[in-house]
Prior knowledge:
Elements: H1 2-7, H2 13-29, H3 39-43, H4 45-71, H5 88-112, H6 120-125, H7 131-140, H8 152-165, H9 187-195, H10 205-210, E1 214-215, E2 224-226, E3 235-236, H11 243-257, E4 267-268, H12 272-277, H13 284-297, H14 317-320, H15 324-327, E5 329-330
Parallel strand pairs: 2-5
Antiparallel strand pairs: 1-2, 3-4
The protein binds iron/sulfur cluster (SF4).
Amino acid sequence: MLVSAVLDQGPDLEGVRLLLKNVVNSLYEKEVRIFHKPLDFFKELGISVDEILVKHKGIKEIRSKIWAKENKTNPNKYNLFTDRTNQVLGYAVYRWGVPLCVPYLLEKDITKRGENAVEPLVEYIESWDSAEIMSQQVKDNERYGLGKAIGDKAGHLFAKLYIHTFGIARRKDSAFGPLSYELPFDSNAGRVLFRTGFLLNCAELDDYEKWEVIQRGKGKGGENYIRVTNIRGKKSSILSLSKKIMDAYVKVCVEYLKVRKRRPSSIEIQQVPNILLLDTEYGIGDLDDGLIHIGTNFCYNHNNPRCEECPIKNFCLGYNERKDLILDYRT
Ligand code: SF4
């Protein structure tokens, strides 16, 4: 799951997931059992690198034309290596190898202390106060953190995979439940949240520009670019005025995310979805699944998304009133 969270980004998520699946299956067929013996990835680095190259080439043949048509671009630009480079070694060691090392190092440390390492990664993950804090530590912990190999979005995606998608959390308390981590803000989710007007309910266009979430003329061909990840940590002055919303936010922070001990004075925009889902049957994972579905099947990142067929068109500000939200911005 750690490897999956690190890799799960870029313009073609379907291709990325296929790459992960095909490479892992092929490595296991060759007895390179990377999730059971992480060091085998390095011991058999030649095989690991070859499999990534071969499977990437195969997926490019299948996906590049479909991807290029959906995104109005050139199929030759299709590249699933996370940093859009052509160098497989850096991609393999950094993006696959670093997360594979975490359980290995945990096991080594536990053994060194003379303790028994049954499921070192699970025990480590669930030792934190909440899934939100765990998702930050997966990146930032001095010894076991992945650092720049993983972004904030991927840390939240890892929490989603662990709690929602695979449902393997042993802890049953609210701090490891459906509202215990922030929504992974990737470009697909961010585009839908922007076009539908959700983000404009939290702050003004000028605020997003000031925070460099909206970067005028910085996109491809001089388009306005939305850098969703820059929303992280930004506060909603609009929603913070409502006592009812603030009361719900305090509950989210104290009982679920466990990120504050005292009453906060303003609301972080990235935590607004947790407030909206409070006391509903849905969690952050459900919302994210929906946003990804809309973002990858209807709300394409160009001027002609499939609005007429989109299941949320009746609620969409961009579709109903503000065409500029669709036409003037790219993620
Ligand atoms: S109605 Fe159109 S702009 Fe709105 S979310 Fe759906 S596809 Fe995107």
